[in-house]
Write a structure and sequence with these properties.
The complex is a heterodimer of chains A (about 525) and B (about 650).
Chain A: H1 2-14, H2 16-31, H3 46-67, H4 82-102, H5 111-130, H6 134-153, H7 159-190, H8 195-204, H9 212-229, H10 237-244, H11 247-269, H12 285-308, H13 313-340, H14 342-345, H15 356-380, H16 391-394, H17 397-400, H18 402-416, H19 422-438, H20 445-473, H21 488-506, H22 509-516
Helix pairs in contact in A: 2-3, 2-5, 3-4, 3-5, 4-5, 4-11, 4-15, 4-21, 5-6, 5-11, 6-7, 6-11, 7-9, 7-10, 9-11, 9-12, 10-11, 10-13, 11-13, 11-15, 12-13, 12-20, 13-15, 13-19, 13-20, 15-18, 15-19, 15-21, 18-20, 18-21, 19-20, 19-21
Chain B: H1 2-28, H2 37-58, E1 74-84, E2 87-95, H3 97-120, H4 127-146, H5 150-168, H6 175-206, H7 211-215, H8 218-227, H9 231-246, H10 255-258, H11 264-273, H12 276-285, H13 287-290, H14 294-315, H15 321-341, H16 349-381, H17 399-413, H18 419-436, H19 441-470, H20 489-509, H21 514-519, H22 535-558, H23 561-569, H24 571-578, H25 583-628, H26 636-661
Helix pairs in contact in B: 1-2, 1-4, 2-3, 3-4, 3-11, 3-16, 3-20, 4-5, 5-6, 6-9, 9-12, 9-14, 11-16, 12-15, 12-16, 14-15, 14-19, 15-16, 15-18, 15-19, 16-17, 16-18, 16-20, 17-19, 17-20, 18-19, 18-20, 18-22, 19-22
């Protein structure tokens, strides 16, 4: 009995930050109904308190996170390695920014629940990073999905939001089912749900032919998680949902599910124990790499080409987020290929070439800063009566609100990948990772991946610069100073994102050093 | 404290003017516009102090000749931008004896010029802008000298070019100033192109751009030479093209005289301490390369000689006081390159050739600065008139300026015991040594003859300018008002200090070998024996100086009639000299005009061929999008169906691959 408690304690200590977040969620859910009267009215300004409480919870979780450094891997249901640690840092930081973005998006009566949902989503992402078991992984994925439905609907319960939520809900459960299907096959092939156990089973396999069960599982997992990444052809919900949902929810959707998807894929496909055994046809890699290759190419092209045609700023950002998912998939593929060949040809690869997974994780952080920054400006630059929807709402922004225009221009420059912004560095890393992998004999296809990435970066620049052109070159369309509101929390969030976007260009080492410790 | 200083001294030197620049730009524009010079003067004082301290850090054991072992370079990585994979871009500062001497010269002259400018520029509407640009200029120059690798050197090489553009075009509303700034920038770019190619070639050949790795290990160079014997020739010639642009050597010297359009302190700065010295520094810095490329060294000497001669001939007949000085700068830079080129004359000469070139640069900085600032003081008093035909006999009206100008002129003419004498004499001596022995003795003989001829002309034109300005009957232009004022204290003090330096610094550091022995501590410079004093050259150059000054006195003070006669008789030659041997005209006619034609053709192709192609390509995304669009119709069942379809396609393709591999 004591041993069981001991074990439970150990497991709990591995997920302490998530426990803090979930405790806060419970507290908010419990307390919130008492502060709203029968008619559904709440005291004015209540949302500020809930925002502060959320920030406090995140701060507390951050303290716990900081106090719990990575520990050696065990066979238990949870792991706390460098990847977990890094992802936690990422979600907690960007979680704070999301709380700031969401501050005034929900009215006082519903603010509590939506904040609680946001915290639950963040906890779910962290749990994905910490899970070492298929069951835990799936539960964590659902901990992200289910609060997301509420988060999309709660702030504004009008028809577009309802439609967006419904679409997301239906497609999301569809994709969850596919993931579950894949997981069951994986369990069938290896006989265990423990991820370390699965990788151990792979390496122990003596059969030198690929396993069809594993291949099917791989396809299913990629397809199911591809929904979270907004990988083509699982991206269709994104433009509609981004358009219909509240801005803060769109911001959350553009970033948080991507962390979830990429981390889940990393956990599933790349053995964290170092990959001496990875050169085994039994693993998921042989099936996953060509599939991901094509999906990445399709994602990049479709995202960028569709974005070119958009006139609605949210739809454009949705497609932009699709294309960025494609860029990050490049990093993932290169990293997997790199791990896969560890055993034999690694000696021939330049030892200090850029690691694909590292480049992807770096880009993830950079992408968070620049895309959340863009949404923050969209929230902050909105008018009292109308949020920013089309290009016309942005035209002449440089005259009416020059600081906003400049901020947005910087974020868009970063999204386009122009120096001196972190977006440039992120794309550069991904490009170099793919290119140096392409120099290995027999892996020339990665060189093509690098070239396609570069072409797509150029395509992307087109529409980002178009927005900048609209802001700076067009005349304002009946905008006046009077009907602007001061959105302090969003402005603070935009400022933080600006620091990230520029800071990671000038001092990339801050992020790069922890990333380098993640993958062997 | 000492440890802290030793470690941080390097970044302190450029940081002080950079902070001054930031302060002026951010704060000085609004608050205390009248005192915008103060941050710069303060910053440069800090830099100068730091540079002087650096002299002792780089060579800790005094200035003795015996301690070659202790010589070393100091390095600091100020900022590591990115170190990811093979990409490693550190901002490394590196100082050795050569850079320390250079920095001392740059910061001291700049400081004096800044003090001078604080009074000279008074009342200008762009007062803070001027000092901001000047701070940036000095910062860039310091960084150029401190650069620890070729990449950083190139960045600040360009930054110096940019700052010179800003300063030459300071009065941009004047069309001539704007044109001169543009010309300086464009001509510099030609040289820069050579430099960047050279840097690429170094990267290609050596795989590193780090000075420490390249210059302090002879083994590396020997290894490369064994495989590619000619590669260093190419590298050196490309680097030299860069130097030609920046140091205004033939045929790219055309920008420097026009650079007079900027405010006079800028001219002093560009001509004396910063910018033009960068080319000399680059070639001197790359001595370990150049010693392996004797033909390039001969080219250097030849270009230097041609430049010196052409510029001296042009200077003979100019009426614009500042232009005389500008051409003399070009000519003196030619001297420095002759000296650098003399390294090709023999094994043992390389060290001395470099030393004497750097020494001439050092003394030249002081006497050219005092000459320019005195010319500025004349201009200030004469209401911005600088044509020597419109004023004369200023000796009594402007006593301080007169004396300081005279000090500079004597030094430039090479009067014995003054600064210019020592350095110029050494250059002549090393050229004489090169012409005595070795396989290229004949070539260096011609160079020596040109050098001597130029030396005569230098003395003549300098004193022609002096006599025309300060002697003869007292005459003021009407712009000057009734009573011209001599330099106010803020201008007089820097003038006086520079004049004293112009007179004495050569004697102090030349014959005592203070400069030479210090410079020998530079890592990478070849070793050599003591250089004997060449009494013959000393004698000849003294006589030439005396003859030049005497002739000028005779022609412009005693009997000015002769000049008019000469002008009439030799009108063709006179015209040629007046117009700078028509090099500018030639450049416009035969280089710029064909290029313009080419540009017109390119424009045509760009507009009607490339643009059309791009428009076609731009059509593709639209087409593609319109194919995909129907799927994106907002129907959730549709989306689910396509997702399912995608899943099935993925599944089939993966399983098919699986089947095929079995």
């Amino acid at each position: 009995m004591n041993a069981a408690i001991q074990q439970l304690n150990n497991a709990f200590s591995l997920i302490a930050p998530e426990a803090v977040l979930l405790a806060a969620v419970c507290l908010i859910f419990f307390a919130a109904p008492f502060l709203v009267n029968e008619r559904g009215e709440a005291p004015v300004g209540l949302r500020h308190r809930w925002g502060c409480l959320s920030l406090l919870a995140l701060l507390l979780a951050s303290c716990v996170w900081w106090q719990s450094p990575p520990v050696t891997r065990t066979l238990g249901p949870f792991v706390l390695d460098e990847l977990t640690w890094y992802i936690r840092g990422l979600t907690l930081t960007f979680g704070a920014i999301l709380v700031l973005l969401h501050w005034n998006q929900a009215d006082d009566a519903r603010s509590a629940e939506s904040h609680a949902c946001l915290l639950a989503i963040l906890a779910g992402v962290n749990l994905i990073a910490a899970s070492n078991d298929l069951v835990g992984l799936f539960v964590a994925l659902e901990l992200v999905s289910i609060p997301t439905y509420l988060f999309l609907l709660l702030p504004r319960r009008d028809a577009p939001a309802q439609e967006a939520t419904l679409k997301y809900f239906l497609l999301s459960i569809f994709s969850s089912a596919i993931v579950l299907f894949g997981m069951s096959y994986l369990y069938g092939a290896t006989g265990t749900t423990n991820l370390s156990g699965i990788h151990a089973a792979f390496s122990a396999a003596s059969d030198h032919r690929a396993n069809p069960l594993v291949a099917v599982a791989t396809v299913m997992l990629i397809a199911g998680l591809g929904f979270r990444l907004t990988a083509v052809p699982f991206h269709f919900y994104a433009p509609d949902v981004f358009q219909g949902a509240p801005t803060s929810a769109a911001a959350m959707l553009s970033f948080v599910p991507k962390i979830a998807g990429f981390v889940a894929l990393l956990r599933l496909m790349v053995p964290a124990t170092g990959a001496e055994q990875a050169m085994n046809p039994w693993t998921m890699t042989p099936a996953a790499i060509p599939l991901l290759w094509w999906l990445a190419v399709a994602t990049m092209f479709v995202g960028n080409l569709m974005a070119l045609m958009q006139t609605d700023i949210r739809r454009l950002l949705a497609y932009s987020s699709v294309s960025h998912a494609g860029y990050m998939m490049v990093g993932l593929i290169v990293g997997m290929a790199h791990e896969h060949q560890k055993a034999d040809v690694l000696a021939t690869v330049s030892p200090n070439s850029v690691s694909g997974i590292g480049a992807m994780l770096f880009y993830l952080a950079v992408y968070g800063a620049m895309t959340l920054g863009t949404f923050a400006v969209l929230i902050a630059a909105a008018r009292t009566d109308k949020r920013i929807e089309s290009f016309d709402d942005l035209s002449g922004l440089s005259r009416t609100r020059p600081a906003m225009a400049l901020l947005l221009a910087i974020f868009l420059f970063s999204l386009a990948g122009l120096p001196p912004t972190a977006g440039f560095l992120g794309k550069l890393n991904l490009f170099f990772a793919a290119w140096s992998q392409g120099t290995v004999e027999g892996q020339e296809s990665y060189k093509w991946l690098a070239v396609i990435l570069a072409i797509n970066a150029a395509l992307g620049a087109w529409y980002y610069l178009k927005i900048i052109g609209v802001m700076f070159l067009r005349e304002p369309i009946n905008r006046s100073q009077q009907d602007t509101v001061i959105e302090t929390p969003s402005l603070i969030a935009a400022g933080l994102c600006l620091v990230g976007t520029l800071g990671l260009f000038f001092l990339p080492g801050w992020l790069w050093v922890p990333i380098q410790s993640i993958m062997p | 404290m000492t440890n802290w200083l030793n470690e941080n001294i390097l970044w302190l030197i450029p940081a002080a003017p950079l902070l001054a620049c930031l302060w002026i730009v951010l704060v000085g524009q609004v608050i205390g516009r009248k005192y915008a010079h103060r941050p710069l003067v303060l910053g440069l004082a800090v830099s100068l102090a730091a540079s002087l301290y650096l002299l002792t850090v780089v060579v800790p054991h005094g200035f003795g000749h015996d301690e070659h072992e202790s010589s070393h370079s100091v390095m600091t990585t100020v900022y590591q931008w990115i170190k990811i994979g093979t990409i490693d871009v550190p901002v490394t500062l590196r100082a050795d004896a050569m850079s320390a001497l250079m920095l001392t010269m740059v910061t001291s002259v700049s400081l004096l010029v800044a003090i001078f400018a604080s009074s000279y520029m008074k009342g200008d509407p762009g007062y803070p802008r001027f000092f901001a640009a000047m701070s940036l200029f000095v910062f860039s120059m310091c960084m150029l000298v401190l650069a620890g690798n070729f990449l950083l050197l190139f960045v600040f090489w360009e930054a110096v070019g940019l700052c010179s553009y800003l300063l030459i075009g300071f009065w941009f509303h004047k069309p001539s100033a704007a044109a001169a700034a543009k010309k300086a920038f464009v001509v510099n770019r030609i040289g820069d192109f050579g430099l960047i190619l050279g840097i690429f070639l170094i990267w290609q050949t050596f795989g590193t751009l780090d000075f420490a790795a390249l210059f302090e290990s002879p083994k590396l160079i020997d290894g490369i030479l064994a495989g590619q014997p000619d590669i260093l020739h190419w590298i050196c010639i490309l680097l030299f093209i860069g130097a030609v642009g920046k140091s205004a050597q033939f045929p790219l010297q055309v920008w420097l005289p026009d650079a007079m359009e900027g405010p006079t302190p800028v001219s002093a700065l560009i001509h004396a301490a910063t910018m033009v010295t960068a080319g000399v520094y680059l070639v001197a810095r790359c001595t370990p390369f150049f010693v392996h490329a004797p033909y390039v060294q001969m080219t250097v000497a030849g270009i230097g000689a041609a430049t010196a001669l052409i510029a001296a001939i042009t200077a003979l007949t100019q009426y614009d006081l500042k232009r005389v000085l500008a051409y003399s700068t070009v000519s003196q830079l030619g001297y420095m390159f002759m000296s650098l080129g003399a390294a090709g004359g023999g094994e043992g000469l390389a060290l001395h050739a470099v030393t004497f070139a750097m020494f001439h640069m050092f003394t030249h900085a002081f006497f050219k600065a005092v000459l320019f600032l005195s010319a500025g003081s004349v201009m200030h008093a004469m209401g911005d008139v600088i044509d020597m035909r419109r004023f004369s006999g200023l000796r009594k009206a402007l006593p301080i300026t007169h004396w300081t100008f005279l000090a500079g002129a004597l030094a430039l003419a090479g009067v014995p015991l003054l600064s210019g004498f020592w350095s110029k004499d050494e250059i002549l001596a090393v050229l004489a040594a090169a012409s005595r022995e070795g396989e290229h003795a004949g070539f260096y003989g011609i160079i020596l003859a040109i050098a001597l001829l130029t030396s005569l002309m230098t003395a003549f034109y300098t004193f022609r300018a002096y006599f025309m300005t300060f002697w003869g009957e007292e005459k003021f232009p009407e712009e000057a008002g009734h009573h011209p004022h001599d330099a106010p204290p803020a201008m007089a003090v820097p003038l006086a200090i520079l004049a004293v330096a112009a007179l004495g610094i050569g004697l102090m550091t030349g014959p005592t070998h203070l400069y030479g022995h210090y410079l020998h501590h530079t890592p990478g410079l070849p070793h050599a024996d003591e250089f004997p004093i060449d009494w013959l050259m000393m004698g000849i150059s003294s006589i030439l100086a005396a003859v030049g000054i005497g002739t000028a006195y005779q022609l412009y003070v005693v009997s000015p009639k002769i000049v008019e006669n000469l002008q009439r008789r030799l009108s063709l030659a006179y015209q040629a000299s007046q117009n700078g041997l028509y090099i500018d005209w030639f450049g416009y006619k035969f280089i710029a005009a064909p290029l313009r034609g080419l540009a017109a053709i390119c424009e045509f192709v760009d507009r009607w061929v490339i643009d059309a192609l791009v428009d076609c390509v731009g059509f593709i995304p639209g087409l593609f999008g319109s194919i995909i669009r129907p799927i994106q119709n907002g129907m959730v069942q549709n989306y689910a169906a396509v997702m399912m379809l995608g899943l099935v396609v993925c599944l089939i393709s993966v399983l098919r691959v699986l089947v095929e591999t079995h």
